């Protein structure tokens, strides 16, 4: 069932732990110090459980000595800080002494299972031939797609292979990438290629749910647990039973909800708001963020233990500006997709000039921005041929290509924008952004996010997206709580 090395200098604790593990079917080897432990081949164990403070070298020295085997650190309550430091050094987890027997067995089981799953996944990832057939490639071999993800540049091909390899292993995945790069599509592709594909995929944008409601939305609530809770309700975690839960913008999850989510990951249990009972759940979590979670951990805004649980496998989506000619491949795909949806029969197509501008443009809003630009252009381009001004791109973000500088005025972006009122539009957009910025900064301390969004006449998600774009983060908890409670 598992081969465990215990490293502990206090013989009473060591033999008690040995008995406990053996009763649960594990094979145990003992050592009193790092030196004694190192006489074994450390990578032959499935797990090493070590005290932090030992005579001689500290238990954390085993982390580097045993490169392949997870190390679980035991520490007293008084030295929790060093336990967190041990996690930073690469310990798989820590457990406080004196430990509860059930807690210890649960942790051991989880760490060994996670490690075996991870090794299986990494073996698949390093096998270049496996699963590549699932990537759709056209006859010429230069267009590729996975699920709804389109694009054939090298970073996307690598991404497809990685997505296919992590799909079958039942491990947590953390998807990172700027807003609009396709994180949700990537999560869908993982679900579709996993054994859970016939069960639900529940997608939740943590930034779009008001802070005061997020716990009950995710974890459910019992009748009467708060004003307005007139009946018991299942949360989205339970709704994803046997399937996958995709939590987008996980960096926005409030601290209390982070604690409940940790329980789901650690114990496979969910406790509804207002309930004393926990319910078992079987859910695979895929999380996504455009933020640097490590930085949020440092700032005390994201739980370190949750961060470690989430990043079992990390996948990064490249920004659109780093995908070369893929921008045109995706644009053409979007032109036909939206022409069909809008029932256009004008043979909509991108002009050569629009294509050149699109390749040079920076796409700060990534594929979402591209999709909006194409939809706008399809409606404005009445002859069917799409020119750059139909796309409505912000001038600052694209340079005029040399080849265009000498072409006809109609194909010259600068001339067009100056003459057709686009610069007036940009002006208007700027002053709207000014207004938005002033309004938010002035009222955010005494209004909740929902109130702010209502006053501005936009959705909470849109408010959140603009905050990201303009660099006005949500105020710290105290202020927003006061507002939410009003
Ligand atoms: N490679 C791609 N091919 C085709 N369409 C794409 C691709 N990537 C993204 N899209 C489209 O772009 C839009 C944004 O994608 P998605 O919602 O998956 O991004 P995201 O990274 O989750 O964004 P956010 O972080 O803002 O929620 C969607 O309409 C999606 O269908």
UniProtKB/TrEMBL annotation:
Instruction: List the SUPFAM superfamilies.
Output: CheY-like (SSF52172), P-loop containing nucleoside triphosphate hydrolases (SSF52540)
Q: Electron transport: present as a keyword of the record?
A: no
PROSITE patterns for this protein: RESPONSE_REGULATORY, SIGMA54_INTERACT_3, SIGMA54_INTERACT_4
* Residue ranges annotated for the Sigma-54 factor interaction domain, each copy included: 149-379
BP-aspect Gene Ontology terms: phosphorelay signal transduction system; regulation of DNA-templated transcription
**Which parts of the sequence belong to the Response regulatory domain?**
3-112
**What are the 4-aspartylphosphate sites (modified residues) in this protein?**
51
Q: Where is this region: Disordered?
A: 403-427
Give any GO molecular function from the UniProt entry: DNA binding
Task: Could you list this entry's UniProt keywords, alphabetically sorted.
Answer: ATP-binding, DNA-binding, Nucleotide-binding, Phosphoprotein, Transcription, Transcription regulation
Q: Compositional bias (Polar residues) at which positions?
A: 404-425
Classification via Pfam families:
AAA_lid_14 (PF25601), Response_reg (PF00072), Sigma54_activat (PF00158)
Gene3D superfamilies (alphabetical): 1.10.8.60, 3.40.50.2300, P-loop containing nucleotide triphosphate hydrolases (3.40.50.300)
Question: Which InterPro entries does its entry note?
Answer: AAA+_ATPase (IPR003593), AAA_lid_NorR (IPR058031), CheY-like_superfamily (IPR011006), P-loop_NTPase (IPR027417), Sig_transdc_resp-reg_receiver (IPR001789), Sigma_54_int (IPR002078), Sigma_54_int_dom_CS (IPR025944)
Q: What is this protein called?
A: Nitrogen regulation protein NR(I)
Q: Native species of this protein? A: Reinekea blandensis MED297
- According to the entry, what is the taxonomic lineage of the organism? Bacteria, Pseudomonadati, Pseudomonadota, Gammaproteobacteria, Oceanospirillales
